[in-house]
Structures are given as structure tokens and as C-alpha cells.
Amino acid sequence: MFDFTGKKVLVTGSSSGIGKAVALEFARHHAKTFVHASRSMEKAQGVCEEIRKEVPDADVVPIVADFLKDDVADVLYEQTGDIDILVQNVSIQYRVAWDEITDEQFADQINVNLRSSLKLTQKYAPYMKQQKWGRIIYVGSIQQHQPHPMMAVYAASKDGQMSLVKNLGKQLAPFGITVNCMSPGTILTPRNEKVLEIKEYHDACLAGIPAGRLGKPADCAGAVLLLASEEGSFINGVELLVDGGAHLL
Ligand SMILES: NC(=O)c1ccc[n+]([C@@H]2O[C@H](COP(=O)([O-])OP(=O)(O)OC[C@H]3O[C@@H](n4cnc5c(N)ncnc54)[C@H](OP(=O)(O)O)[C@@H]3O)[C@@H](O)[C@H]2O)c1
Known about the structure:
The structure is a single chain. By secondary structure, the protein is an alpha/beta fold. The protein has one domain: NAD(P)-binding Rossmann-like Domain (Rossmann fold), CATH 3.40.50. The chain has helices at residues 17-28, 41-54, 72-80, 103-131, 152-172, 193-196, 199-207, 217-228, and strands spanning 8-11, 32-37, 60-64, 85-88, 134-139, 177-184, 239-242. The chain has a 7-stranded parallel β-sheet with strand order 3-2-1-4-5-6-7, sandwiched between helices. Strand 4, helix 4 (103-131) and strand 5 (134-139) form a beta-alpha-beta unit. Helix 1 (17-28) crosses helix 8 (217-228), helix 3 packs parallel to helix 4 and helix 4 (103-131) runs parallel beside helix 5. It is globular, with a radius of gyration of 17 Å. It starts with 7 loop residues before the first strand and ends in a 7-residue tail after the last strand. NADP nicotinamide-adenine-dinucleotide phosphate is lined by residues 13, 15-19, 37-38, 40, 43, 66-68, 89-93, 112, 139, 141-142, 184, 186-187, 189-192.
């Protein structure tokens, strides 16, 4: 159904987990896809190789940029040039109680999860405006709806990001640009592999998902492609939850 021929897409944090699954689907659907890792070019190259094994004619380009650095938007832009679709998927998550979180941990999460979303949009939206076509998708979280005692600041950063989605969705709509959020529930990725090995935690997560299973990274990819597609051009300023119904409980 979806065809991204001629489109360039940057999926940040696509060296792992959800971003990697999203990058694979964009490549499968003919987008030129920038595969991004934080610091290791070898890691980004390795993911490009994996994608080429599945999609032999994939147009995938490895890049690196550290979101903890102030110049992340410039560093990314130097490697990608203008793009049509931005998927801002990188986040930092510290599992720390609200009354123990340090200033540094607070700043990292707000800078990476919220401030970079704005900085990247500032960098990439001008070309989209000029082209009168663009798609901006931020990756949110079920945490925006279900308070977790160890992730108050992480959730606040994602809520702030959703506020940007609504505000920028309204402001950029006249230029043919949509701004949306895809919020995963519990998805089994390297980020939470360890904690999900704890049986009690795993079972408690499962009990909170009406679908009766944890999510897979691939579950998120179709939702992102829909938001990025021509077919999704009338969807703007929304949060699309991909959580097996967890927000219903
Ligand atoms: N997994 C879940 O259950 C879940 C639930 C709700 C929301 N989410 C959201 O989904 C998104 C992806 O999560 P995931 O579980 O797929 O994570 P993941 O497997 O841990 O992957 C994280 C990605 O972000 C990159 N990254 C981390 N720190 C970075 C930094 N300082 N600079 C640049 N890149 C950095 C990593 O790059 P390197 O590997 O190269 O360091 C990697 O590509 C995040 O926004 C997360 O908040 C996930």
C-alpha cells in the first residue's frame, strides 16, 4: 500500500529496537533511509547490512550523531542534507524515583527527548515548507498515560513532546506538513530486555496488556509508515498508541 519512492527519511535511533524495525520498513517501501547510531559508525553500517540482506536493493545510509551534544542537529544535517520525513525516535530513560533524580539526569532526558525534537524540526522543516510536503513523527510513550513510579521525568519529557506535536501540527499544516506522535506500549527491545527478564516485572507488564502479549518492534513500524505516507496525509496532531490496548486498563 505505501510507496516512498523518491522520499528521504531519517529515523533517529535506528541502530536498535523500534527505530531499526521502522528503518527496515521504510527501506522495504523504497525510501532512501538514513540509519542512525549514537556513536558507532560500525553499528550503523551493520544495521544497513542487515537491512540489505532482507531488501537487496535498499537505499540505506549509515550516520552517527550523539544527542547529548548541543550540535546534534547540525551534525545530522551535515550527513543527511534535506529530508522529506523525520522520525525522531531517540530517547534517554533513567529509571530513578522522582525524589532521587539528579539535575544531570533531568537535563539529559529533557534535552534528548524534548529539546532535540524541536531542534531537529527547526533544522529540517524549512525544506519541507519549501517543498509543501513533509512528515514529522515523534516517538512518544505509554508513560504519557500510565504513571510509572521510576519514570516521572521521562514521562514529562514525552508529554512535552506531545505538546509540540499539537502546536507544530497546527502551525505547519498549511505547508503540507503533518506532525504526529507514535506512542509504543511495552515493546521488547534491548532497552528493556534486562528488566523484562525479571519474572514478576514481566508478568505484571503482561497483565496490563489486553492483547495478552508484549509488543515487537515491528508492531510499531506500520503505524509510523502510515503517519509518514500519502495515505495518512489527513492525520495531523495526533498520538497513535501502539500498546495492545494497555491504555484501556
Ligand atoms: N521499548 C519500549 O517498550 C518503549 C516503550 C515506550 C516508548 N519507547 C520509545 O521508543 C523509542 C525507541 O526505544 P527502543 O526501546 O527501541 O530503544 P533502544 O533499543 O534502546 O534503542 C535506542 C536507540 O537510541 C539511540 N540512542 C540512545 N542514546 C543516544 C544518544 N545519546 N545519542 C544518539 N542516539 C542515542 C541508540 O543508539 P546506539 O545503540 O547507537 O547507542 C539506539 O539506536 C524511544 O523513544 C523510547 O522512549 C519504547
